[in-house]
Amino acid sequence: MKYIYKHGNQFWYQRAVPESIYKIIGVKSIKISLKTNKISTAIKRSKIQALEHQKMFKYFKKKSNSYVEKFFSKTTKNIKKYEIKFLDDYEDLVAKLVFSKSKYLNDLKTTLNLNDKNQHTLENFLFENIPDQFPLLSESLGLLNNKNFDIKNRSIYGSLITEFLKICDDKTINEYNENDATKLYNYFVKTNEIQFGKKIIKNLDYYFATLFKYFSLNKEVFLKSIKFNTNRTRAEKFSEAELHDLKNNCLNKKDFTNFIIAMLLNTGCSFKELIGLESNDVNLDKINPFIIIRSNLNRTIININKIRSIPLVGLSLWGAKNIFQDKKESLLKDFKNHKKLIKYNESLVNKRIKSFSNKKTISSFRLSIINRLVQVECPEEVILEIIGNSKKNRLYRRDISLELKSSWLKQIDF
Hints:
Elements: E1 4-7, E2 10-16, H1 19-25, E3 29-33, H2 39-64, H3 67-72, H4 93-100, H5 102-112, H6 122-127, H7 137-140, H8 157-167, H9 178-190, H10 194-214, H11 240-252, H12 256-265, H13 271-275, E4 282-283, E5 290-293, E6 308-311, H14 314-324, H15 339-355, H16 363-375, H17 380-387, H18 402-412
Antiparallel strand pairs: 1-2, 2-3, 4-5, 5-6
Helix pairs in contact: 1-2, 9-10, 11-12, 12-14, 12-15
């Protein structure tokens, strides 16, 4: 029953206006009363009205090719001439069933004499054969095999909707509201899976939006009301004991995850800065080995303050040698165009860090190196240069030498 929905005691016609058209006519959807409460009549009238609107869309589509029309069209166009004026065609369903047809009365008596009277009420008998306006959410999954159902990544939604239905009831798609959003929110908060929940809700939001568009349902997606607490827990620096535990684990278990952790320890770099390094950005054969954070073929550094050289000392030098000693190409070669793989490895690093600390993450390395440098009274400008937060002075060229930065980093090595 495309473009049809029921409101009160009558059926209405409603359809979305294509994006290229509504910019001209000024409306995003069209809503017209079909002046009937009979579904068979509503279907016929809906098809007739749809043909008129199809003509209208073709007409304005030609107009959309006109630059002048696009530019100066700021007022709503008169689309009433495409609206068919239907005559009232209502009938009293209760009167027809109960008072006009003796057959229905006999059927009603027979039905109400059945054992399960709770399920065979008068209301159920009168209205059980009226079809639902929209499908159940579980039934909507059948659309994933329909090529006309315009949705991306179809394969993920089967399990996604199944999990959703475990939290919320299976209802017709137009029945979901903010109460269901609250159930979903409470579930992810209770299970402490906020970040995972955000990804799930983003996909569900897209699925429902596509459903509503497909069935021409003019309804705001109920998941929009979900607002997770965005106040992130402030990162904390590592304790000395935690740093020693991380170091010992790196030395005992030599794998890529620990090599990255080792480089993070004394450089103040972010995970993405390290992953973006090319072999030419890593200098291990110098008196003072160092890495250069800069733009290369695989990544672009937009913030000029982030472009810097960082000495490699202690465990960070050890980690860099294990990764780059025999590597002649970019570290990103194995990760290029694989964002999911990069995120996966970042999660592995965070998971490893959390297992040797009190739920701390990669960002704790930055805070820790600042704290350790402050404790040895390292000048502020040197600290800011190391972590990539300095302001490049245009008037005074006070470049901080690699040797100076190396001398301060060696003082905090353990």
